[in-house]
Sequence to fold (102 residues):
Amino acid sequence: MKPIAALLLLLTATAAHADPFAQGNAQAGKNLFDQYHCNRCHMAIEGGDGSRIFTRINHKVTNPRQLVAQLHICGGNVGLDVTPQQEQDLGAYLNQNYYHFK
Ligand code: HEC
Fold:
């Protein structure tokens, strides 16, 4: 059910050409990101604070849907069962700071 709800949300947002994570709270996303130490593996891969994983050449995520999919993959790494609201919050945080999807 959850992925379907997320997809519907995304489709609606995309159709309106609105911010795909308009329902998200970037600060809540950042808090979640820090709480789960999301960058700890990214750091090991990319060095620095790890955030280069989002901006490296040929980075994987090239649209909001892929971002949501990656949140679920990576959330699984840290035992976080990402809810639709958390998708929006984490998405808003990462989108505002790195991806800038419209
Ligand atoms: C267990 C290690 C690990 C943890 C913890 C982890 N990630 Fe990742 N993450 C990865 C790896 C590995 C990749 C690169 C995947 C690839 O290149 O195929 C990645 C890539 C990503 C990307 C895509 C970057 C791109 O190429 O555009 C996003 C977004 C992301 N992670 C978000 C998160 C979030 C949010 C969390 C915390 C909930 C998190 N990650 C925690 C290992 C991890």
The mean pLDDT is 91. Residues 33, 36, 38, 40-42, 45, 53-54, 59-61, 67, 70-71, 74-75, 77-78, 80, 90, 94 surround heme C (CB under 6 Å).
